[in-house]
Design brief:
The chain is α/β, with parallel strands linked by helices. The protein has helices at residues 41-47, 52-55, 119-123, 126-139, 156-167, 181-186, 219-223, 239-251, 265-277, 292-301; strands spanning 2-6, 16-19, 29-38, 61-62, 66-74, 86-90, 102-106, 110-112, 147-151, 171-176, 191-194, 207-212, 226-234, 255-258, 283-288, 307-311. The chain binds NADP nicotinamide-adenine-dinucleotide phosphate.
């Protein structure tokens, strides 16, 4: 089978499609024939060597976190799925490995694919959907009549964060690039700001929750946008940032939280239900496996709306 691997850290030129044996499954595992895998910024942070503390430096390394596919085979201890089921799921975010024709997973890594979604749409949901759910419901506890600022609102996480914050009854201000203005309004944002025309740092409004998905807004900058007991959520965990947010949260009313997404079967099941109700999934573009380098290069360049997805035949 074909699989994407790399043997050194670097840019997209390190990514190779190699031939490998189909993985053997253990009793509690399933073999999935992968249909689609979405691209996440975490991928290039890992293959770029920015996350060695979490990913380790041993090669070869694999790529691809969230996927959709069809159950090909089940181990004897698997009870919740059978061959032929359509599923979606995610692998360890720092190890990856979904970019392969077949993968071995455990049943807690997957959920049934929402019936109304294509395989491409379903692959775009797990990591970013879980991240948005955990930010909106657990970290920021967004509720009715709160003012929520989402900086980077039409990327993978932002598209879902806007919709979930609206579902919880908040007033949402979405900060996006010019291409994302229409999408942010479609997703339900009450106010849309094009960051190429207006800097968030010059806004006069104060918010209950400030969520930075762009990695460009620091806590120091965000403080001037926060009400006295507001929460700031960012998404780049580093030892220094985690320690300084811990110290800040003891002494300051303005809280700082950093996402470390926790993949859970329960979270995946919640996402499935939300998708079957009305959650919008926004796709940018699909690529064949043979164009993996181009796909990642374009995604990393940015200025796109929604998720890019690699399709396996
Ligand atoms: N810690 C964790 O557990 C975890 C989990 C998931 C994701 N993440 C991280 O969370 C971040 C967001 O993920 P994602 O999948 O949503 O990424 P994404 O799809 O790349 O979205 C980032 C968005 O930020 C926007 N942006 C760029 N510069 C901006 C600026 N100056 N002001 C406002 N917006 C700006 C981009 O818009 P343009 O392209 O139009 O510029 C893009 O839509 C990534 O860094 C990712 O690695 C962390």
């Amino acid at each position: 089978m074909k699989k994407v691997q790399y043997n050194q850290f670097g840019d997209e030129s390190v990514l190779d499609v190699v031939e490998q044996a189909v993985p053997a499954i253990k009793n509690d595992q399933l073999l999935i024939r992968v249909k689609a895998v979405s691209i996440n910024p975490l991928d290039w942070k890992v293959y770029g060597g920015e996350m060695t503390l979490m990913s380790g430096s041993k090669f070869p390394k694999s790529l691809g976190i969230d996927f959709s596919g069809i159950v090909e085979q089940t181990g004897s201890a698997v009870t919740r799925f059978k061959a032929g089921d359509a599923v979606m799921g995610l692998l360890d975010v720092f190890k990856g490995g979904a970019l392969a024709e077949y993968i071995a997973v455990s049943q807690t890594d997957i959920a049934p694919k929402p019936t109304n979604l294509s395989f491409e749409q379903a692959a775009a949901l797990p990591l970013t959907g879980l991240s948005a759910l955990q930010i909106i419901d657990q970290m920021a506890s967004v509720g009715p009549n709160q003012d929520v600022l989402i900086n980077g609102a039409t990327g993978g996480v932002g598209v879902f964060a806007v919709q979930l914050a609206k579902k919880r009854g908040a007033r949402v201000t979405a900060v996006v690039g010019t291409k994302g203005v229409a999408q942010a309004a479609n997703g339900g944002a009450d106010t849309v700001i094009d960051y190429t025309r207006q800097s968030v740092n010059h806004m006069h409004q104060l918010f209950d929750v400030v969520i930075d998905l762009s990695t460009k807004l620091s806590f120091t900058e965000a403080k001037s946008l926060m009400k006295p007991k507001a929460v700031f959520v960012s998404t780049l965990p580093s030892p220094v940032a985690l320690v300084s947010s811990f110290v800040n949260n003891i002494f300051s009313g303005k809280k700082r939280k950093i996402l470390i997404v926790k993949p859970t079967a329960e979270g995946l099941a919640t996402l499935s239900k939300l998708a079957e109700a009305d959650l919008q999934i926004v796709l940018n573009k699909t690529y064949p496996l043979s164009n993996v380098r181009e796909a990642y290069r374009e995604a990393r360049r940015g200025n796109i709306v929604g998720k890019s997805v690699i399709v396996l035949d």
